[in-house]
Amino acid sequence: MSAPAELRREVAALVVRHLDADPDRRLRSDRLPLAVPSFGSAEVAEAVQVLLSGHITMGARVAAFENAWASWVGASHGVMTNSGSSALAVMLAALVQTGRLARGDEVIVPAVAWSTSLFSVLSAGLRAVLVDVDPDTLVLRGRFDRPVLAVHLMGQPCEVEAPLVVEDACAAAGAKVGGRMAGALGVAGAFSFYFSHHVTTGEGGMITTSDRELADACRSIRAHGWARDRSDRERLERLHPEVDPRFLFVTPGTNARPTEIQGAFGVHQARRVERFVRIRNANHRAWCEIVEERRLPLRVFPQVPGTRHAAFGFAMLLDEDAPVGRAELCRRLEARGIETRPISGSNLARQPAVRDLPGVRVEGPLPVADAVHERGFFVGQSHAFGPEHGEFLARSLADILAG
Ligand SMILES: Cc1ncc(COP(=O)(O)O)c(C=O)c1O
Fold first, then answer.
1. Cα separation of 273 and 201, whole Å?
2. Which residue's CA is minimally distant from atom 10 of ligand 1?
3. Domain residues of the chain, as ranges?
4. How far is the CA of 122 from the centre of ligand 1 (A)?
5. Fold annotation for 274-401
6. Does domain 49-264 have CATH number 3.40.640.10?
7. In the chain, which residues have pLDDT < 50?
8. What is the distance between the alpha carbons of residues 218 and 326, in angstroms, rounded to a whole number?
9. Would strands 376-380 and 340-341 be described as parallel, antiparallel, or unpaired?
């Protein structure tokens, strides 16, 4: 039975409207939303094709996106998941499963991070040591004596040396240290493709690594623990002839697979991402200068020489003696069309879910994390913004902070 005429007209109008959407256009400069859609007609058309094909579960488009993303990052393997958080959880579980880390090992985690950055460490059977972040970048910097979860917060890449570095690049697509991309700086990295990120698949994530054994473990853990998607699948099938190869489970696992609709978005988003990151990065550098010129009672966090800041969002830290507190400043920015958020989980040690959580301990004082907790906030950054949006932000901050 065919769809009623009215529904047909509605769907056709919707599709046409989206086909005209242009993710490259610049947004008007008198507002700053947290996020702007990064997708257009190519993604919508590909997703519609997936829906009409009937094959909506993980398939060739997810595989194509994995290859494109890994090659952009400079890693040998990409493993797509249904979110950044599940990419983190699968990646850390795979590190334990393959013996790169042992259950009970301590992992350094920055006190300023996203909630699931920390929880994924715990769910893999590891112990987390929360440490303070660098005051000039709000991320980890320097040499550490234990494995580190390098959380490239707000697009600012961590510059760390440690016995093992594993990256949370969920908010840092395209960040670089010394020419090397986030996601290829350590043994493995996790990305997020949630709507507000550099590029999106609605929800979605990706693990990148150049360690084949680790990538295979990730593929098993992502899909029920089975052998099906692994590069060594045939060897494993020969090893266990008594088990039907269609349901051959070789590791403990879960289901963190993306859909083919997400893959359809991903293949096109992968083509756009480098251009988007360049625009965000240029904006970040311009905005830092524009805001700093005003000599306002707040700090911004410029790009560090030798790195590329991926400019996920534009972070600021109010001075202790600013005439207006953070809550009031954010309320007045929002009233002007400038959306604000706290800087990620701020000081995770002060979050109710983390206080007294087994497996977590704090090492050293956390003055920077505390400052971020009390006075930090960020506004959106986007490929759809330009320097004029930085002018709008600086003007608004100056008006409000003048009293
Ligand atoms: C640093 C960091 N890690 C992890 C995540 C979680 O990603 P997702 O929302 O895709 O689960 C986010 C989300 O913004 C993030 O910023």
1. 12
2. 84
3. 49-264, 274-401
4. 16
5. Aspartate Aminotransferase, domain 1 (3.90.1150)
6. yes
7. 1
8. 41
9. antiparallel
